Input
Amino acid sequence: MNEPRFARLQRSLEQGFELAPKAVLQEAWGRIYGAKLPILLAAIGVVGCWLLLNQLLVLTGGEGEESVWSASLLGLAISMVMAPMSGGLDMMGIHRAVDRPIRPSQIFDYFRYLLPLALASLLMGLITSLFLPLGQSLGLPPMLAMLPTLVLSVALMFTFPLILEKGLNPLQAILTSLRLFARQWMALLLLHMLLVLCFMAAVMTFGIGLIWVAPLYIVVKGIIYREACGVEGAGPAAIADEPQPSSLNQSKDHFDA
Output
């Protein structure tokens, strides 16, 4: 916890962090220039792999109890495969936020973290799926029943990067993400609401607007992570007051969520 790479994160957990939605969006808009193509190609790769794996799930599905088990196992395999790729998209946004180079193939760089990312994905899925059946059992309208799930999805946005960039274990990363969200929940929800509106507007342009909105979303997440957690090895422009170790993912102990 006393290591320099945890300094910004620890301060955010104890004292909070500043997050101005307008400033974040303005910075992200400036940073997508020159980065749209690699981010779009990476996003298309993630979506394409997800569609392909889900098509395999449909094709292998049969009837009866045995098919249910096989579908469940294949669904688990899909979540395990997609977790490192989703984490790769998050890391592209973080790298762009601190002026590091990015490339479309970066989504394949994190399969060595397959086990912790898959476990985190499973835990997040269990957490976010608890409230929808509860709301339905209480007779709430579908939109209200989904509200806690949507809020939790935002609250868990730091989980994958905390595993990949800070070296936390899945449970630590989830708990830390929830604590960070509690520090700036209003600004984080507002940012995501604005981005949802942007996505809706982009869809209304027959998808053309996604050329800007999809990279904007990835870079916004990277900027938020930078401001809340700091980025190891980033230059003084990104982390002005933190000494930085020379390389990523070293000495991963001594942090308690």
User: Anything to note?
Assistant: Residues 236-253 have pLDDT under 50 and may be disordered.
